[in-house]
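General statements about sequence and structure are easier to judge against a single worked case. For one protein, we set the task of working out the structure tokens from the amino acid sequence alone. This step matters because it turns folding into a mapping between discrete strings. The amino acid sequence and the backbone structure tokens for this protein are reproduced below.
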Amino acid sequence: MLLAAVVLLAGGVVSAVVGYALARSEQRYASQSMDRYTSDVSAAVTAEVNRYGATLADMSRAVAAQSDLSRDDFRDITDGLDADRLPGASGLSFVVEVAREDLTAVQNYWRAHGAIGLTLRAAGPGTSHEFVIYSRSVDGVPVNPGQDVDTVPVLAEALATARYGGALAATSTYVLLKDRAQAATRHEASFSLVSRVQTRTGRFRGWLVMGVHGADFLDRTISDHSQGVVRVAVNDPSGTDTMVIASTGAGAEDPDPALVRERAISVGQRVWRLTLYPTEHLLSGTDHTLRTVAIGSCLGISLVLAVLVGVLAGARNRAITQVEHATAELRRDIAHREEVEQRLRERESQLEHLAFHDHLTGLVNRSLFHERVTQALITHAAADESFAVIFIDLDGFKQVNDRLGHAGGDDLLRQVGGRLSACLRAGDTIARFGGDEFAVLTEHLADPADVRVAATRIVETVGRPYLLDAGPAGVTASVGIALNRPGNDADDILREADLAMYTAKKAGKARFVVAG
């Protein structure tokens, strides 16, 4: 009986150890899952913010290009804004600065340019004020022209940041002016993105202000990437720490602080903090059955051994030794197989990446790019949609390579790849064909003419000066564009884009040409 009790006690200890080990494994799985969801959500939110910023910047350039901006011009420029394209966008306003003594003259000027009924009244004693001149509603709630923006300190601060900082600026969270006139249920945490409107000659003309409802802006992105298994909170700690949005998955959040993740992202010269909490749905995805079966098996084996020890006391030592040896061998075998499988998966991932990506820039290589163009021909033909292939060749790269050496040239190519990734849409395919040649596949064009905007952005972005480890450098980009046409295969489109690029080079470089 004493030996049987010892066996049962040992079996209980083994069961507890196995249960603890499996619980730790489940904890590691939950931790890795939280890390993955954190990376996915933060990357998605950053990409969405960049997309809104790029849209606002494009419209700012379009407004700045008008020598005598009218209400009709503003309506044409903002015609593409809608809730499907920019979820959460409340509206877009053109704001100008007016000195107090010029209120009447400026009011009459904009009335003559289509702002019917515009009335400018300064809300405070300042010498100058910022007023809404034109506006376009996206959510159906109108914005009243003539509002004095100085009445909203956070918005006035963002206007100053955008004007003197040059880059896109964002406000801290607040209730939009037009929502304050609505029912209290419409008073949700919102923010505004502000872009400076400045001509190529440097003359400041005003601002474009896009009001955005925080929950609507982030809900679709977070829901798509959190998959209902994590709760995501987005805060603005650089302001009042007001919550921008909270998206809750199924079940209550897990109280274990070790599974809570935080990530900071930059939004219009401010910092948002993303906090992700696990839910019961995430934890229920862990295989608790394995732990139950393992513990039950250990207890069952212990009971059987106890009975055998009681009946066959003389054979107890041999039986215990055999069981321990079999358990150790099983653990070693499991560990060995897991190690081999992990190495195989890592090697397979490495080989797949090397086969389809450029080793220097990490971009897609020629082979994978050709495959994606071929696939785009099939999908876009079925949907009757347009896509474009953009060929990019760096002007002056050889001189940089000769002056700074191959290391400097490689550094430049990596920075060019990074700039292309930053200035294009998240869904665009960017490839390096070798040397100083790059290519871009931009799909699902709402209007084939949209590719000209992307090409202009590429020429401007690539043409900015570079600060390399080996010293400063500069190159420009000659860009050729080819659109898909019936009867063309991938090689035809690539050839047309290549020829258009060479035409751009012959025409003086630092420009783009669309294949005829």
About this structure: The first strand starts at residue 89 and ends at 99. The CA atoms of residues 285 and 499 lie 54 Å apart.
